[in-house]
Amino acid sequence: MQRLKCRVEYDGTAYAGYQVQPNGVTIQAKIENALTQMHKGERVKVIASGRTDAGVHAVGQVIHFDTNLHIPASNWKRALSSMLPSDIRVANAEQVSEDFHARYDAKGKEYRYYVWNSPEANLFRRLYTYHIRKPLDIESMREACRWVEGEHDFTSFCSPRTDLKGSKVRTIRKAAIEQQGTELVFIFKGNGFLYNMVRILVGTILEVGLGDRTPDELKTMLAAGDRKSAGKTAPPHGLFLWNVDY
Amino acid sequence: MQRLKCRVEYDGTAYAGYQVQPNGVTIQAKIENALTQMHKGERVKVIASGRTDAGVHAVGQVIHFDTNLHIPASNWKRALSSMLPSDIRVANAEQVSEDFHARYDAKGKEYRYYVWNSPEANLFRRLYTYHIRKPLDIESMREACRWVEGEHDFTSFCSPRTDLKGSKVRTIRKAAIEQQGTELVFIFKGNGFLYNMVRILVGTILEVGLGDRTPDELKTMLAAGDRKSAGKTAPPHGLFLWNVDY
Q: Which spans are transmembrane here (chains A, B) (predicted)?
């Protein structure tokens, strides 16, 4: 038996999210089905660093699973990718110790959120960016980002549909915005993220960029500890799980 | 009655090509249905600069149609776009004289073909680039391009499934390759293109880039006047109708 750790990329457009669920096709199901086929029908359980919602993409999702197949770790990337549909891909595979756990050992994550900021739509980026027609004040949004960095209780930026019972205190090491031509990239690095947290942060910061809120309202929202104090949840298709640190 | 000329963009992924046909959804059908709805059921015929194949994209397709609706030309872009699915978009609309014809008046066209040249796939460009894993010799391919420029009989670069009866002599003003990071962009400008011509040119030039053919074989192929002398037809999803000149 060997344990494998894989970095997985996927285009979330066609899926009902990462995690197996009764309704809709999921990324986890596609990967588990491919592995089950490779193991001649024996069911293989896949553990991921965390779930992603319907429509959310990943370039840095990390999974682990155990296998008794005699395939060298260096060949797994190709072997498993070839069994997956064209919108899911194993980017890297390596053997790890038997006590490695993709979820429990994750020390931090990076998410990126892409915005296409132009009066004109871009058809060919429509599945991977959130289109905002009106001009955005990037300096105001960067000021808002500074309130997000550090250790805070992020209750106001967590969907009430969460099943989390414990603390909502998280540390955000980086909250930044890069401009790449017509695209804005929101970058968030932290030790953990609550349900819908990045999308609510982006939705709220975009309201700052549109002039509907001031940057220091982020401070008030964090203090309120109430989802209603924050802004809208940005749509899923601009969001990428970018990296998981171990 | 006014005649409108529109520049139309589309993601060809979901379509059985531009032109209306019995099997499969087409871009022309989507546009004509939207116009028919706007005209309260009265059928509106749309003329395009030419057809594009299943899976081929456009940023510069040009169409014309006649309308008796009292909508200023400046509002047509938004009005028609709002009736179209998210993968088809009117980028520009203007009133033209009643004798303008999108097909007969076209003086030249530009096509671009995108190649993702890397051992690693890029999921998020998979629908818009042709993935070539092996390294390509760009200088050889540029040398091949030089044989393509000028006036030639392109019979060898035309699908035998064409219904064209007339001359296959065309003038290519520009055949060039730009490198944009991991992507190669093939640019072809000419007074007209035969059926599958750009895809056969790209497929053949890629064989030069892979070292399977020499650049000056392009000269021999042009002289042969036989489709069998040229290389493979590159797949449709890397191809974009970029611009039509009038």
A: none
Nearest to A239 by CA among A156, A130, A79, A164: A130
pLDDT digits (tens, 9 = 90+) for B184-233: 999 999 999 999 999 999 999 999 999 999 999 999 999 999 999 999 99
End-to-end CA distance of chain A: 22
From A9, A88, A124, residue closest to B128, measured CB to CB: A124
Are A131 and A209 in the same domain?
yes
Mean pLDDT (chain A) is 96
User: Which chain B residue has the Cα nearest residue A81?
Assistant: B121
Contact check, Cβ <8 Å, A128/B123: no
Q: What is the ipTM score, two decimals? A: 0.90
CATH number at residue B12: 3.30.70.580
- B69 with B190, same domain: the answer is no
Quick check: B86 and A123 CB within 8 A?
yes
- Residue in B9, B123, B128 nearest the CB of A89: B123
Tell whether A103 is covered by a domain: no
Q: Is the pLDDT reported for residue A163 higher than 90?
A: no
- DSSP string of B178-232, one letter each residue: EEETTEEEEEEEES---TTHHHHHHHHHHHHHTTSS-TTHHHHHHHHT-GGGS-P
Q: How big is the A-B interface in CB pairs under 8 Å? A: 30
- Please enumerate, by residue number, every residue of B annotated as part of a binding site for substrate: 111
Q: Is B133 on the interface with A (CB under 8 A)?
A: no
Measured between CB atoms, which of B11, B87, B123 is closest to A87?
B123
Report yes or no: A10 at the B interface, CB cutoff 8 Å. yes
> Do A119 and A63 reside in the same domain of the chain?
no
Find chain B residues with C-beta within 8 A of A91's C-beta. Answer: 120
First CA to last CA distance, chain B: 22
> Which of A96, A121, A155 marks a domain boundary?
A96
* Helix, strand, or coil (residue A61): strand
| Residue A8 structural domain | 2-96
Host H or E run for residue B24: none
Between the CA of residue A45 and those of A20, A31, A191, what are the distances in Å? 11, 9, 26
Tokens of B212: 């399977």
Report the 10 Å Cβ neighbour count for B91. 17
**Cα(A98)–Cα(A172) distance, rounded to whole angstroms?**
30
Q: Provide, as residue numbers in chain A, all residues whose Cβ is less than 8 Å from the Cβ of B123.
A: 9-11, 86-89
Catalytic residues of A: 53
Is residue B101 situated within a structural domain? Answer: no
